[in-house]
Fold Orotate phosphoribosyltransferase.
Amino acid sequence: MDERFVDLRSTKNPKARIKMLSGHFATKNSHVNTYIDMSTVKTRHNNARETARTLAEEYLTNTMVDTIVCLKNTEVIGAFMAETLADSSNMSMSAGNNISVVTPEFDFTGQILFRENSQRMIEGKQVLILTDSMATGTLTMQAIESVLYYRGRVCGICAVFSAISKVAGVEVKTIFTSSDLPDYHVYSAHQCPICDAGVRLDGIVNSFGYAKL
């Protein structure tokens, strides 16, 4: 791990911990000046469980959830969220539900689809969309459109970190926001002041991590 990474712990739950690395990075849809590493909360079961509990609190008493659609390798968090939401001891609206945790597929054009065997977990269901981080909301918007196409109802959007507060008019529930990372900036790949200053990219980032250039 690069020694330049800095830990950031949530004030809501210190075990919900992310790491940050300043630089110049390209995502699929933008350029950012900070790479946010989510590997701890997405892969370590204890941190994932605590992250899930913190996110699930937003929906316990006010939202019925039938299905969680997991974007960007958040299945571990999604499974723990389902467990928390379905727990009858939590006074949850979803208590007792056998909540489905599904991962969408992408076709060769990048569109989201659900195969026949998983469409029944979307159609007519209350669907919560979960992702690790959102800079522009483009992927989440795709997920919303896909859920609606398969006749599901989007009951919520949540992320570990989000630089935006709403997608398609739906409030994003999150643990970390831009206020926790005041120096975090998102730029269009074609209008990036870091590029204009002649600074080369440090790496390309996606949900699996970052690759140095």
About this structure: The chain has a mean pLDDT of 92. The chain has six helices and 14 strands. The longest strand covers residues 17-26. Helices lie at 39-43, 45-56, 75-86, 116-119, 138-149, 193-196.
